[in-house]
TrEMBL record:
Active-site residues, record numbering mapped to chain: H99 (proton acceptor)
InterPro entries in UniProt: 6-blade_b-propeller_TolB-like, Arylesterase, Paraoxonase2, Serum_paraoxonase/arylesterase
Transmembrane feature ranges: none
Record's keyword annotation contains Metal-binding: yes
Domain of life, source organism: Eukaryota
Name used for this protein in its record: Paraoxonase
Positions that bind Ca(2+): E38, D39, I101, N152, D153, N208, D253, N254
Subunit comment: Homotrimer.
Length: 339
């Protein structure tokens, strides 16, 4: 919201909400992450990718002059460390500004990493091939499209196929502000493939995190300013039809899926006002929710972790692997916890 210090009405930002601490027995901050790990995606073998260093108009940054990057952590190691992945020559690293990420494993075991990128605050989706032996990413393709004006997150469904959320309809900063302030509900989900690009769901206040059920039948979309998670059914032609909406009492950011149980893990912002108006003496808090049986009549919603900002500020993602919980943030640190 560059230049416009006006925000959505306070009820949509949950501006008066404070959190009660919910601690886990064993948590430590991850070394080397000081300026945000907005999204995290874990491969079935325990390799975790972190999207770090996001810079966004209107948001605080602890490293405004440092480009973003992708870090890798092997969760099978005794004391795993996050290491930056090298990116192939020819890719513009100086303007790399990664946001939402998603991995896809092809039938030949090739691992593709999809990254929402905002070079110079524009919108692209980058596709990389992960080369594990070299600890590097080979850049394959940059995707720009008029239906992807304000991309927030992606879920890969093929080697060059994905669903993406747009968190605004407009690209102009003033129109973006107006759209949010007027609560237009014009944001959407787009399906992209090399052969077809189309709008597949719309009417969200601010579509944010997106993910898919383990059986690949359902797509989940977080609507951050409406405090909702939408469950959409995937059709054979890749269109999405709404099944249900789960209302929550917090601003829901990225969604991660536990592949074994199908549980949804959500990084949340209990108080959105503190995110935009950064005050080090009263920082944004963090909250992690676990949602079990979302398709049932009464899904079970549990607060697994909550902190007033004294340890972790602005949690944007939470994801699990083999008894380990990783929590990332918009612009602060990241946490490694044992469940």
């Amino acid at each position: 919201m560059s230049g416009y210090r006006c925000f959505p009405p306070k009820n949509r930002l949950k501006a008066s909400r404070e959190v009660e601490s919910v601690d886990l027995p064993s948590c430590r901050l991850i070394k080397g992450i000081e300026a945000g790990a907005e999204d995290i995606d874990i491969l079935p073998n325990g390799l975790a990718f972190f999207s770090v260093g996001l810079k966004f108009p209107g948001l605080h940054s602890f490293a405004p002059d440092k480009p973003g990057g992708i870090l890798l952590m092997d969760l099978n190691e005794e004391k795993p460390k996050a290491k930056e992945l090298r990116i192939s020559r020819g890719f513009n690293l100086a303007s790399f500004n990664p946001h939402g990420i998603s991995t896809f494993i092809d039938s030949d075991d090739t691992v593709y990493l999809f990254v929402v990128n905002h070079p110079d605050f524009k919108n692209t989706v980058e596709i990389f091939k992960f080369e594990e032996e070299e600890n590097s990413l080979l850049h394959l393709k940059t995707i720009r499209h008029e239906l992807l004006p304000s991309v927030n997150d992606v879920i890969a469904v093929g080697p060059a196929h994905f669903y993406a959320t747009n968190d605004h309809y407009f690209t102009d900063p003033f129109l973006k502000y107006l759209e949010t302030f007027l609560n237009l509900h014009w944001t959407n989900v787009v399906y992209y493939s090399p052969n077809e690009v189309k709008l597949v769901a719309e009417g969200f206040d601010s579509a944010n995190g997106i993910n898919m059920s383990p059986d690949k039948k359902y797509i989940y979309v977080a609507d951050v300013l409406a405090h909702e998670i939408h469950v959409l059914e995937k059709q054979p032609n890749m269109n999405l039809t709404q099944v249900k909406v789960l209302q929550l009492d917090t601003l829901v950011d990225n969604l991660s899926i536990d592949p074994s149980s199908g549980d949804i893990w959500v990084g949340c912002h209990p108080n959105g006002q503190k995110l935009f108006v950064y005050d080090p003496s009263n920082p944004p808090s963090s909250e992690v929710l676990r949602i079990q049986n979302i398709l049932s009549e009464k899904p079970l919603v549990t607060t697994v972790y909550a902190n007033n900002g004294s340890v972790l500020q602005g949690s944007s993602v939470a994801t699990v692997y083999d008894g380990i919980l990783l929590i990332g943030t918009l612009y602060h640190r990241a946490l490694y916890c044992e469940l």
